[in-house]
Amino acid sequence: MKKAIAASVIVLTIAPLFAQKPPGEREAETLQLEQYQRTRDVDNPAENERRRQAEWLQSDLVRKANKFAMLWAQFSAQANAGHTFDIKLAKKLEKAFSDLQKAEGWPGK
Question: Per the count of CB atoms within 10 A, which of 33, 50, 64, 78 is most buried?
Fold first, then answer.
């Protein structure tokens, strides 16, 4: 409850400042606020471990999605430019999609 009150006070204190600043500064302040909220619970190792695990799972999903997107762009560009079908690239694309589907955080998993 104390954490919720502290977060509310911080948000209510910083909120009026957002209306006076350009979007870039607002994003920077939002990121700083999120970083503060993540780091203020240093005394709770279980919460820190849970947060690190969740961040790792999210970054793993993003990495796999980026790999798939890169291969898809390469495959479609090659198919459109040369009107050819690269079997090796198609197999890499299939594997990347399979890895993406197996990742934690994939919908329906």
Answer: 64
How far is 24 from 11, CA to CA, in rounded Å?
18
- Dihedral sign for Cα 52, 59, 29, 15, please: negative
- pLDDT, tens digit, 9 for 90 and up, residues 8-58: 555 556 555 555 556 667 777 777 777 777 766 566 778 878 888 888 888
Do 24 and 57 lie in one domain? The reply is no
Of all helices (H) and strands (E), which one includes residue 100? Answer: helix 87-102
Model confidence at 85: pLDDT above 60: yes
Backbone angles phi, psi at 75, to 5 degrees: -65, -45
Structure tokens at 24: 């870039």
pLDDT number for residue 86 = 87
> What's the whole-model pTM score?
0.55
| Host domain of residue 12 | 1-40
